[in-house]
């Protein structure tokens, strides 16, 4: 876990420096430090040899290299299309892993900068929530999520047609991205309005009545790649994960008046956070629902640090800031170290890299 601990510390420090630079209007320096943060995230992710489904994607790349004619424009074909392009550069599958890590993490860092508050908390939450490690597991889906996150401004401005086109194109990486089309209409509602309260109420009823509504849900999913989850009986996520994801929603409600006054566009982020915690709650019964949160959880990384910075003052803010650091690190340790025994496998050797080994050599 040392590489992950080092990443948490280094990205926190460099993004803290970036925030200080932004505060003093040193935009060039802020961008420089942000590039360092993005580089750390990209290289750690891009040089892994394992974690989750990484070996599967490497194997698929190798098979495509052996027989490019197997490519077809059906299903989630976009990653294979990207692979065909990358094959012209290198036949080493590591180039695919690195490229996806590059696109995913750069887009997320750009969005953190665009909607910045406490930048260092944004990247800290990104890693310690487990999302960053998930980008190394759910490779295609997190790539699709990063691309959709970059389309946030289209939701804010109410440009449905361009947004819908983007979602359809992005769904060629992972068809689950299509869920963001109906969600577009939900998140554009005013946060905590009567419609949203009814929506939340129905969701709560759904959670408590999961055994009744789950057959209906899986019936709707049976024609998708998630249909087999109806037979999945290994349980779901922990109640702690639901609690952690509830925190931004709770604080957003408590500070709803200040948030509405200081940040008119906050409705989108608050509603995304509400829908996220609903899916996480359903995820306690079946892991399938946690996969959908990959599109929603990114908005938490903007919302929670914004609340701490702009809706609290003095000792209250300092206490929340320090409590945030401690609680999220505990959650990271509990989930990734104790719960999953996470390690970082890599074939990268610094000495060989410096003295001439071509990692993407083909």
Write the layout of secondary structure elements.
Layout: H1 2-23, H2 27-46, H3 54-66, H4 78-87, H5 94-114, H6 119-128, H7 131-134, H8 139-149, H9 152-156, H10 160-170, H11 180-187, H12 194-208, H13 210-221, H14 239-254, H15 256-262, H16 266-282, H17 288-292, H18 300-310, H19 314-339, H20 350-354
Helix pairs in contact: 1-2, 1-6, 2-5, 5-8, 6-18, 6-19, 12-13, 12-16, 14-16, 14-18
Q: Any overview of this molecule?
A:
The chain has 362 residues and is an all-alpha fold. The protein folds into 2 domains: 1-150 and 340-362, no CATH class; 178-311, no CATH class. Helix content is 69%, strand content 0%. The protein is built from 20 helices and no strands. It has helices spanning 2-23, 27-46, 54-66, 78-87, 94-114, 119-128, 131-134, 139-149, 152-156, 160-170, 180-187, 194-208, 210-221, 239-254, 256-262, 266-282, 288-292, 300-310, 314-339, 350-354. The protein starts with a helix and ends in an 8-residue tail after the last helix.
